[in-house]
Amino acid sequence: MRADKDALLHGPYTPPGLRRGDRTFCLYRDAEVVITSWTEARIPWPRCRAIGVRGGSGLLITEELVRAIRTESAEALKYWFSVKANAVWNWRRAHGVTRWGTEGSRRLHQALSEDAAAKLRGKKLPAALVRRRVKIRAERGMLRQPDRWGEKRWKRWELDLLGTAPDAELAARFGQTVNAVRVMRWRRHTASKSADG
Fold first, then answer.
1. Which range marks the domain in which residue 164 is found?
2. What is the DSSP string of 142-178?
3. pLDDT tens sequence across 58-80
């Protein structure tokens, strides 16, 4: 799973041909920067510091790295560029990328979800977990009786008119399909016969 988790979908990514002391523009800092060093990551990349600003340095964000930020998963960026999660989230925020907003992140999320589902498939959930889920759903108002036949979408007067005119005529009047009128009429008739008998 490790190789899949860190896989690059759109690599390779080519670092810029810069040396320590060179000046260039960083798209993340939106400023002119000086190259301070190179990383020893799986994909070596230049580190930079904004000119005239005190403080540490970080990866130089070029068009090539922006391409990676907008397409790869956070796990892949961390693995290949040897950066922390905080750096990746800052880059993504700066470039308008949401948590699952890249192809790599969506694929990774899908794969991890499928793995977890496969491990749980066929296993009975612990009673405590079931009770907790029921309680949460009840608190959120999600335990209402299901609308099995779609009756809640019908107005009372529409239900009262079922069977009093041809289905096609009522369907045009209600804005429903003929089949919807026919099925609802049959269901209500069957339900009333069951109640009477």
1. 151-196
2. --SPP-TT-GGGS-HHHHHHTTSS-HHHHHHHHT--H
3. 999 999 999 999 999 999 999 99
